[in-house]
Amino acid sequence: NQALLTEVSVFSQHLEAQSASVRSYAYYRATAVQLMRTGVDLVHVSKTRALAAAWARHDYAFADEMLSFDGCFGLKEVLKALQLLDSRRRARALERRIARLNAQGSAKQRTKTKLASFINDARKEEVTQGSVSGALVRQVKRWVRAVPAAQLEFFALQLP
């Protein structure tokens, strides 16, 4: 379980580790909390996938616990986790847009290719469980309100 957080891993591995069994989940959670508490440098990609897996399982207590560690999660990680969970909806919306453009017959091939590329990006890592729900949005809003304004400003300056 430590390797899931300290090395590059995929969403499905985190989801499986968190939902395999009660014992496996307890070990995963204890390992994650201990690594964050001791200040071990976790891989950015693994942090976002661990957070997204907790949200996908509706385990808001674990997600809150992960977000409570200072310096471990920033706005970038939270937004990436939300983007990962929202990827299925986004891909479906883009597919509907391509179908509508094909039905109208007025779209350029370049536009369709660009949209197809966005679909491939959204489907790069399959998220089979979870989505961005209203409850999740409320939790993220609560987290953002708890972050000091100066720190939010710092996060915003780091975004592209």
How do you describe this structure in short?
With 160 residues, this protein is mainly α.
Which structural traits does this protein have?
160 residues; globular; 10 helices; single chain; mainly alpha; 0% strand
What is the gyration radius calculated from CA atoms? 18 Å
By secondary-structure content and strand pairing, the structural class works out as mainly alpha
Give the helix level as a range of percent.
over 70%
The low-confidence runs, each spanning 5 or more residues with pLDDT under 50, are: none
What can you see in these coordinates?
- This protein is mainly alpha-helical.
- The protein has 10 helices and no strands.
- The mean pLDDT is 88.
List the helices and strands and how they pair.
Elements: H1 2-6, H2 11-19, H3 22-38, H4 44-56, H5 60-67, H6 75-85, H7 87-104, H8 109-122, H9 134-146, H10 149-158
